[in-house]
Amino acid sequence: MLPNHSGTLVDEESKTQWRVPEWFAHLSDLQLEQLRVFHVELISFNGRINLISPRSERNADIMHFADCISAGEALLASTAEQEIYDIGSGNGLPGIILAILDPARKIVMIDKDARKIEFLKHVAGKLNLKNALPVHSRIEDLPETSVKCAISRGFASIGKALVACRKVAAPGMEYYHMKSESWVTEAADIPPQICSYWQPQLVKKYTLPANLASMHLILTKRTE
């Protein structure tokens, strides 16, 4: 990557930008380097595995990395759980980023696509993330009541996500969802038989840099 006239790193081959160090200057040099390498690997593998929309490659630092760092920091501040599941992880957003942000917590990344799990194993190995565990599985096939804390991004609507995890959810499970403004509608559409067991609440509303899009981290907590 080379700096452009503003100092922003630009990959001359893919024309992607890398401005995360400008937006998250509080992160350590190691974290910033791990994030940069993850970004490079994500773009490199995207043509073969379809990890993100090709249209989002150029601004992946905003649309994917800034989003997941902001939500990830809010989640880590919100929960004391030491094992966090990324359900429907796929491309490692936000699972890999959570593992970078807090090396002391175990991040379990669940996905049914074997190729994407192999990508996550590759990235975890390249970044030496001992706390990142990719698992090839459907969420429904995990042991019953085994998940105490989880997050999803782009996995399903809030209601469908809660249905999918109803057997694996431990009592009091914290399930975080990364959503746009549509979260209010999704919360209203949760089936009554599901909603009676889960309490949704807004954890944090945050604005992505540069494009000013508003995003939300929503927590649904199991009430039994």
Mind sketching the topology for me?
Layout lengths: L1 E2 L5 E2 L6 E2 L1 H4 L5 H21 L10 H19 L4 E5 L7 H7 L4 E6 L2 H13 L5 E5 L10 E7 L4 H7 L4 E11 L3 H6 L3 H4 L2 E10 L6 E9 L2
Helix pairs in contact: 2-4, 2-5
What does this structure look like?
This protein has 224 residues and is an alpha/beta fold. The chain has one domain (62-222): Vaccinia Virus protein VP39 (Rossmann fold). 36% of the residues lie in helices and 26% in strands. It has 8 helices and 10 strands. The strands form 2 sheets. It has a 7-stranded mixed β-sheet, sandwiched between helices.
Radius of gyration: 17 Å
Number of strand segments: 10
- Total helical elements: 8
Beta content: 25-35%
Question: Main β-sheet, in a few words?
Answer: 7 strands, mixed
**Terminal Cα span:** 50 Å
The CATH homologous superfamily is termed Vaccinia Virus protein VP39
Whole-number total of structural domains: 1
Q: Which structural class do you get from the secondary structure elements?
A: alpha/beta
Q: What is the overall silhouette? A: globular
Strand arrangement, major sheet:
6-5-4-7-8-10-9
The CATH architecture category equals: 3-Layer(aba) Sandwich
Helices and strands, in N-to-C order?
EEEHHHEHEHEEHEHHEE
